[in-house]
Amino acid sequence: MTAFFLSQLLVTITLIIESFAMQLKNKNYILAALSVSCFFNAWHYLLLEQPTAGYIFLFSSIRFLVSIKWKSQWISVASLSLSLLITISTYIGVLSIIGFIATVFITVGSFSKNDKFLRLMMIAGGSLWLLHNLLLWTPVGIMVEVIFVGSSAIGYYRYYRANKKPLPLEQVKL
């Protein structure tokens, strides 16, 4: 079995988990599911010889668990600092930069106490990981991020937009 094929099998586990994670209402359940998915995604990247993404995702697996219990801004800053250190020490080019910027959005969101903000940051970060995976050309990784961003957007809509009543026509400004 080739490293590429094994990487695609591992990221398939991520795909399954992330297909439902952002549909959960409880923020802590979302973060726990993302922790498990990050573990498998990390090994997918390491098999593809992408150390920045691999180690960022291994660290993210732990970071998501920590963010369930503690929402402290100093832990968020420490996490971002460690992610920056990982990026600098494993830097291999533009993919490292894209991965780090994506991680900034996701880290800021995961330490937020606001579920709505979490979902918006996941959409932004997931979109950058989608770009990363397109440039890397990891087919299942691309599907993971398409589903993750799509599911995040659907979850955001379901919980924060669908229940809003439209303005009466006379209040709509054109």
From TrEMBL:
Pfam families tied to this protein: Imp-YgjV
Keyword Membrane in record: yes
Transmembrane segments annotated in the record for this chain: 29-46, 53-70, 82-105, 142-160
Keywords: Membrane, Transmembrane, Transmembrane helix
Source organism superkingdom: Bacteria
Alphabetical list of InterPro entries matching this protein: Uncharacterised_HI1736/YgjV
Protein name per the record: Inner membrane protein
Naturally occurring in which organism (per UniProt): Colwellia chukchiensis
